[in-house]
Amino acid sequence: MEMPFHPICRGLLENMPSAMAHCRMLYRKGEAGDFVFLGVNPAFEKLGLKEPLEKKATELMPGLKESNPELFELCGRVARGGEAESVETFLPPLARWFSIKVYSPRKGHFVAILDDITERRNAE
Predict the structure, then answer these.
(1) What's the confidence (pLDDT) of residue 82?
(2) Which residue, of 10, 34, 35, 64, is most buried by count of CB atoms within 10 Å of its CB?
(3) Residue-wise over 43-52: b if at least 16 C-beta within 10 A, else e?
(4) What is the pTM of this model?
(5) How is residue 48 annotated by DSSP?
(6) pLDDT (0 to 100) of residue 106
(7) What is the 3-state secondary structure (H, E, C) of 2-44?
(8) What is the pLDDT, as a whole number, of residue 1?
(9) Digit-coded pLDDT (tens) for 38-80
(10) Cβ atoms within 10 A of the Cβ of 85, count?
(11) What does the alpha-carbon distance between residue 123 and residue 102 come to, in Å, rounded to a whole number?
C-alpha cells in the first residue's frame, strides 16, 4: 500500500542518498523474531536486495539474525514504542558497514535509515 506523501516529502524520499525502509516487526514469544519490508526508497533498492516488499528480512538476507541479533533487538524495542535509536554495524549479507537510525511511526512498525559507512570504517 502506497502512503500519501506531500510532493516535497515524496521528492526527498525518492532522491535522498540514504537507504530507507519501512518495516513491520514480527515477534515470537515476545522477542523480536523477524521483520517484513513494507516500503523502501530507490536508495534502498540499490543495495542489491531483489524485490524486498512483503518479504522477511531473514528471507532476503539469510544469516542476518545470527550475525546481527542486536539489530533485531534494537528494532524490536523501537517498534514496541521505544525511543529512536541508532547503531553502527557490519551487515555480512551486504558485506558493508552501515550507520542505522531507527524510529517508530506507530506501534509494531519501524523506519530504518541506512547510511553506508564502509569507506570510513575501512580507513579507521
Answers:
(1) 86
(2) 35
(3) bbeebebeeb
(4) 0.88
(5) S
(6) 92
(7) CCCCCHHHHHHHHHCCCEEEEEEEEEECCEEEEEEEEEECHHH
(8) 41
(9) 999 999 989 988 899 999 999 999 999 999 999 999 999 999 9
(10) 15
(11) 25
What is the SS3 assignment for 54? coil
115 - beta bridge partners?
Answer: 99
19-28, strands of its sheet edge to edge: 31-40, 19-28, 109-116, 96-103, 85-91
Q: Is the backbone of residue 11 left (phi > 0), alpha (psi -120 to 50) or beta?
A: alpha
Give per-residue pLDDT as tens, 93-114. Answer: 999 999 999 999 999 999 999 9
How do the residues of the chain divide into helix, strand and coil, expressed in percent and rounded to 5? Answer: 30, 35, 35
Q: What's residue 9's pLDDT?
A: 66
d(CA 5, CA 11): 9
| CA 118/CA 124 separation, integer angstroms | 10
Phi, psi of 83 (to 5 degrees): -65, 155
For 7-39, b where at least 16 C-beta lie within 10 A, e where not — what string? eeeeeebeeeebbbbbbebbeeeeebebbbbbb
